[in-house]
């Protein structure tokens, strides 16, 4: 059951439900590489170089990816279910319109990851650093970013519901056209919003964060601050 936290003024912010993975012992993946529309069930990909491979439309169920290279890997419309990704790395990984459900991503080092139009539900992103994450028009529900660094993430037009940022550095975020509901930003270690500060309705922030955002909010409202 989702937790409910008290927010400023006596309102309630529903907490995100985290994934609860109970993975069976996986078998080592012995294939030559990914295939479009492939079906991968209960497999472990360890230190695999999947760079440039095409797994569009593939399904990963009860899988473990550890230390894999994902440079330019094409996984658009893939389904990643009840799986754990640890120490994955890569630039330009394509997960456009993919579905991630009950997934844990730990200590990832990614850049330019394409998740536009994707669906994320009960996803935990813990540790690591992700640069230029593209989540435009994506749907995020019960998603937690914890102890990670997000540099210029793009949430343009996305729908966020029960999303938490815990000890997470959010730098240069774009919220243009986004719709937020029960989004908890109070735990963010740093909060920088480059665009879309007017879309913060539906989010809860701390008093200190409000003061930090005051110049951006004033600019958005056309208020001139002098003296």
UniProtKB/TrEMBL annotation:
User: Can you tell me where the transmembrane regions are?
Assistant: none
Q: Which Gene3D superfamilies match?
A: E3 ubiquitin-protein ligase SopA (2.160.20.80)
Compositional bias ranges of the Basic and acidic residues kind: 17-31
| Sequence segments annotated as region (Disordered) | 1-36
Q: Which InterPro entries match?
A: 5peptide_repeat, Pentapeptide-BTB/POZ_domain
**Alphabetized Pfam families for the sequence:** Pentapeptide, Pentapeptide_4
The protein's name in its UniProt record: Uncharacterized protein YjbI with pentapeptide repeats
Species assigned in the record: Streptomyces griseomycini
């Amino acid at each position: 059951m989702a937790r409910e936290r008290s927010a400023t003024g006596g309102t309630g912010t529903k907490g995100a439900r985290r994934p609860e993975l109970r993975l069976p012992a996986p078998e080592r993946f012995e294939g030559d590489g990914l295939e479009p529309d492939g079906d991968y069930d209960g497999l472990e990909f360890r230190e695999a170089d999947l760079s440039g491979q095409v797994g569009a439309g593939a399904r990963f169920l009860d899988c473990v990816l550890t230390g894999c290279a994902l440079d330019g890997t094409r996984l658009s419309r893939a389904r990643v279910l009840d799986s754990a990704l640890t120490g994955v790395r890569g630039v330009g990984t394509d997960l456009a319109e993919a579905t991630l459900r009950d997934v844990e991503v730990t200590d990832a080092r990614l850049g330019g990851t394409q998740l536009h139009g994707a669906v994320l539900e009960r996803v935990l992103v813990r540790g690591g650093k992700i640069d230029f994450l593209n989540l435009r028009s994506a749907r995020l529900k019960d998603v937690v970013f914890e102890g990670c660094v997000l540099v210029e993430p793009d949430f343009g037009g996305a729908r966020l519901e029960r999303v938490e940022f815990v000890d997470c550095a959010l730098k240069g975020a774009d919220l243009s056209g986004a719709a937020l509901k029960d989004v908890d930003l109070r735990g963010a270690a740093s909060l920088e919003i480059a665009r879309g500060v007017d879309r913060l309705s539906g989010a809860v922030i701390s008093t200190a964060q409000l003061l930090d955002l005051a110049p951006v909010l004033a600019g958005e409202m056309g208020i001139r601050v002098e003296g």
